[in-house]
Amino acid sequence: MAPTSLGQLKPRKQPVQDRSHATVDAIFEATVQVLLRDGARKLTTRRIAERAGVSIGTLYQYFPGKEALLYALVSRQLDLAASAVEEACRENHGRPINQCSDTFVNAYIDAKASNPESSRALYQATAGLDMKELIDTAIMRLHRAAYSLLASSSDDLVDDLDNVVFSLIAVVTGGTRQIFEGDDTATRLPTFREQLARMCRAYLNESKVSKRV
């Protein structure tokens, strides 16, 4: 099957009025529900429209196809996750480096853990779509938030902070995705969270070069 082009993934129009926002929200919620109920292979725009209580024509007013709908849904979820991490980082500026590290790790996991079943379903359903633009944008936002947070640390400076943050984000996002793609997320998540936080604290402390005066 030929890969879906980025142009085919763009929504046809953006909701403006409250009613339009409610319609798109219902379509997004129905998409997740159908994914969880029927699986990615049986996900169709007709089933989504039926579940959302809208006509197939209404769905196509906003999304040219299933792939565009999934793309928009992932875009929203990535935006919500990045926004949550950004807010948590801003609220903890100036804290000790260990607390800064825990803030970033926990904020990211919490954003993904709010609905682990839907996160796993979306990971599986979008495996063949070109999400690079969305992911790059989200990673850039995470990088800025983590960099600003760690640079503000009240007690320690980190050597080569830009590369340190790059590695930190790769570990946190990659490890978290692996957890949510598995079938035993609920069982593994508490231990994973604790061990990931410990790992990141150790890495950042190893990267310290001097004390603030």
From TrEMBL:
Pfam families documented for this protein: TetR_C_15 (PF17918), TetR_N (PF00440)
UniProt KW keywords: DNA-binding, Transcription, Transcription regulation
Residue ranges for the DNA-binding region feature of this UniProt entry: 44-63
Keyword field contains Chaperone: no
Molecular function via GO: DNA-binding transcription factor activity; transcription cis-regulatory region binding
Domain of life where this protein originates: Bacteria
Domain spans labelled HTH tetR-type: 21-81
Region (Disordered): 1-20
PANTHER family xrefs: HTH-TYPE TRANSCRIPTIONAL REGULATOR BETI, HTH-TYPE TRANSCRIPTIONAL REGULATOR RUTR
Record-given protein name: TetR/AcrR family transcriptional regulator
Species the sequence originates in: Vreelandella sedimenti
Lineage: Bacteria, Pseudomonadati, Pseudomonadota, Gammaproteobacteria, Oceanospirillales
